[in-house]
Design a protein that fits this description.
The structure is a single chain. This protein has 65 residues and is mainly α. The chain contains two helices and no strands. Helix 1 packs antiparallel against helix 2. The longest helix is centred in the middle third of the chain and has 15 residues. The protein is elongated.
Length: 65
């Protein structure tokens, strides 16, 4: 039987640089520390999860992101 699905290509999203945490934000700071710990032990999946959370973490309009 022929294969029905096509391969997935991650492209640019997988190669984006790590986001910078917002200065003074405790949540962003904690996520950045968790990300550093994940990289230290080679857990790239957890590091990526932290990056996603930092990017999606809401801040008050006007704050640098």
């Amino acid at each position: 039987m022929a294969r029905m699905c096509r391969p997935v290509h991650l492209g640019e999203a997988a190669s984006r640089p790590d986001p910078e945490p917002v200065a003074g934000c405790d949540v962003c700071g904690a996520l950045a520390r968790q990300r550093a710990g994940a990289y230290t032990i080679g857990d790239r999946s957890r590091a990526t999860d932290c990056n996603v959370e930092i990017r999606r973490h809401p801040h008050v309009k006007g704050e640098e992101r």
